[in-house]
Design a protein that fits this description.
The complex is a heterodimer of chains A (203) and B (360).
Chain A: H1 6-18, H2 33-37, H3 40-49, E1 58-61, H4 71-74, H5 84-91, E2 95-96, H6 115-131, E3 136-139, H7 142-150, H8 152-159, E4 167-169, H9 170-177, H10 195-201
Parallel strand pairs in A: 1-2, 1-3, 3-4
Chain B: H1 3-7, E1 12-23, E2 28-39, H2 44-54, E3 74-77, E4 80-83, H3 90-95, E5 100-102, E6 109-111, E7 114-115, H4 118-126, H5 148-151, H6 155-158, H7 165-168, H8 171-175, H9 181-192, H10 200-207, H11 221-225, H12 232-245, H13 252-267, H14 275-287, H15 289-297, H16 313-325, H17 331-349
Parallel strand pairs in B: 1-5
Antiparallel strand pairs in B: 1-2, 3-4, 3-5, 6-7
Helix pairs in contact in B: 4-9, 9-10, 9-12, 12-17, 13-14, 13-16
The chains are: A alpha/beta (203), B alpha+beta (360).
The complex binds iron/sulfur cluster (2 copies) and FE2/S2 (inorganic) cluster (FES).
One iron/sulfur cluster binds at residues 170-173, 181-182, 216-222, 232-233, 236 of chain B.
Chain lengths: 203, 360
């Protein structure tokens, strides 16, 4: 945005200077972990690192809104037919599970202000992933992780459905496939237990 | 053009396409496949015209202008809302993919690809989409002239053609059909941001209601789908920023948003533990205690005291004050960023050719 508008960049830098912060030069390219390891040299490294594999674990990818849309500003992949998470799951030795809500919103941004509306969104991906026979879901977004994991208890209260779907963050999925210890991956901080996944993988 | 040039037969291609047929009177629903021969330049709308003309006169869809301006022909292709008259078929046919066409989402289907737009128009009217002047009338009945510069902030919102593509995939509306939604809210900013309209505060009050701006879940489907570059999610962000600027901050959503600013100002970080009480107020936060305790027991929240203050928090405070002084808080801050984005898009599409100079 700033790189595209020299005038705005000038104004921002003038303000930064006035409060004593060094000017922004725009020399840093911001890349997401998802993009970094789903393609190119990062993908090759991932394949080497994931030596322990996932033993065909059925994993439902959940992308999160702002890594896909607006695609004109992100541009990594087709926001309606993304492929990067699937590619990573496969490289890790898992089996990607397909379901329509994988590109939709988890409800997190309004989970405090409009809980019912948010839960109406949250239930869709979890329910669909269960129906598609997923052992776990994986997401590259920390906030999706939080709402998918921690708010399942609220879904249970609101709908009576107790999904118990284990939710992994992208880094945890790669960590498991790379043979990191469960303790290093902080699974004890999860609200929904990840044990069924670990048992399946006999970690 | 010479007569010979005009007489060149367009090359044709074979277009396979699937359409979800639906009859609300009988409730019958069926996915039908059609194959037509059509010139290579056809749009999805042209293909539908050929089917209706040559194969099945009962196929129903809306159209009028055929040139992306009337907003009639919104429908879904492979689940994504598009304008049929803007969608070229050539690349799709070349790829070998057979697209599935269906009616737009979030609106009741009347027949085949025709939806009942009444809920859409009801929300549109709810935001009072007309000028409420009240400014001093110029003497001698002369025109009230507004500079281009002052109209630029609502340029994008003015481009809306009421097609409903944004509404079709709005995730918040799917969950709560009463949510005002992207089109109505983008239209609302078109008037809140209009220098001639004098009822901004009343408008913002209304837009801060139960089904107003704070029910938007930031899924960005509206921005992704809009065929006219309105970027409704950004309009909603501008309305939120203007509301807070005007002191309309009673909604949990506004409190939540404000806490990000306060937190950045006081510590330079987002103080997450306090986010719930600051957003919901103490009473409901206590009701949430059991839930919060579960999270805390799992180590999901950092311990609340003392708040960690960033080393150079002074910089963050000064920056905030400076931006405030310059009047760049509220919608203005977002509008200035949009210009940069527009320029980026232009450079991308023209592979680096400088955009023409715009006024203002
Ligand atoms: S960003 Fe908001 S208004 Fe736009 S589609 Fe999503 S929920 Fe609807
Ligand atoms: S904002 Fe865009 S998608 Fe929505 S109705 Fe207007 S033109 Fe159509
Ligand atoms: S027919 Fe008018 S916008 Fe497509």
């Amino acid at each position: 945005m700033l790189k595209g508008d020299p005038e705005l960049l000038g104004r921002v830098n003038e303000n930064l200077q006035r409060v004593g912060i060094p000017a922004y030069t725009g020399s840093i390219e911001v890349r997401h972990l998802l993009w970094e390891i789903s393609d190119g040299p990062g993908y090759e490294l991932l394949k080497q690192a994931a030596h322990k594999g996932l033993k065909g674990l059925r994993v439902a990818p959940f992308y999160g809104c702002q890594i896909l849309r607006p695609s004109k500003l992100l541009g990594h992949e087709d926001p309606d037919r993304p492929w990067s998470l699937e590619r990573i799951i496969e490289a890790c030795g898992g089996e990607p599970v397909d379901y329509p809500a994988k590109i939709k919103c988890c409800g997190f941004p309004i989970i405090q202000a409009r809980e019912e509306t948010a839960l109406g969104e949250l239930i869709q991906p979890i329910e669909q992933a269960v129906e598609a026979g997923a052992d776990a879901m994986v997401t590259p977004c920390p906030l999706c992780h939080l709402s998918l994991d921690a708010w399942q208890s609220k879904l249970k209260k609101a709908t009576g459905k107790d999904f118990q779907m284990p939710i992994l963050h992208l880094s945890q999925l790669v960590g498991v496939a790379a043979g990191l210890e469960a303790s290093e991956l902080m699974f004890k901080r999860h609200v929904v237990s990840v044990d069924p996944v670990l048992e399946k993988l006999e970690v | 053009m010479t007569e010979a040039a005009l007489n060149v037969e367009a090359r044709t291609m074979r277009v396979p396409i699937k359409i979800w047929r639906y009859d609300s009177a009988t409730g019958e629903r069926a996915l039908k496949e059609y194959v037509v021969d059509a010139p290579e330049w056809v749009t999805l709308l042209d293909v539908l015209d050929i089917i209706k003309d040559q194969q099945d006169g009962s196929l129903s869809y809306r159209k009028s202008c055929r040139m992306m301006i009337c907003g009639s022909c919104g429908m879904r292709m492979d689940g994504a809302a598009v304008l049929a008259c803007k969608t070229r078929m050539y690349d799709i046919v070349q790829s070998g993919h057979v697209p599935v066409i269906s009616a737009m989402g979030n609106l009741p289907i009347v027949k085949d690809l025709v939806v009942d737009m009444q809920p859409f128009w009801d929300k549109f009217h709810a935001v009072k989409p007309w000028l409420q002047p009240g400014y001093e009338e110029p003497p001698d009945g002369k025109e009230y002239i507004v500079s281009q510069e002052r109209m630029n902030p609502i340029h994008k919102e003015s481009l809306c053609i009421n097609c409903g593509c944004c509404v079709s995939e709005c995730n918040a509306m799917e969950s709560d059909p009463e949510f005002l939604g992207p089109q109505a809210l983008a239209k609302a900013f078109r008037f809140v941001g209009d220098p001639r309209d004098q009822s901004d505060v009343d408008r913002l009050e209304d837009l801060n209601s139960e089904h107003g701006i704070w029910e938007c879940t930031r899924c960005y489907f509206c921005t992704e789908r809009c065929p006219k570059g309105v970027d409704p999610r950004d309009s909603i962000a501008k309305l939120g920023a203007e509301s807070v600027k005007e002191g309309i901050d009673r909604d949990l959503g506004a409190k939540h948003a404000k806490w990000f600013v306060t937190s950045a100002k006081t510590t330079g970080w987002l103080r997450e533990t306090e986010l719930v009480p600051k957003t919901q107020g103490i009473v409901s936060a206590i009701k949430e205690t059991r839930f919060a305790m579960t999270l805390a027991l799992k180590g999901k929240v950092p311990p609340p005291v003392p708040p960690h203050v960033a080393q150079d928090v002074e910089e963050s405070r000064k920056l905030y004050d400076l931006v405030h002084e310059q009047g760049r808080d509220g919608a203005a801050g977002i509008v200035q960023g949009e210009r940069g984005i527009a320029r980026m898009e232009y450079l991308h599409e023209t592979s680096g050719e400088e955009p023409p100079d715009a006024d203002g």
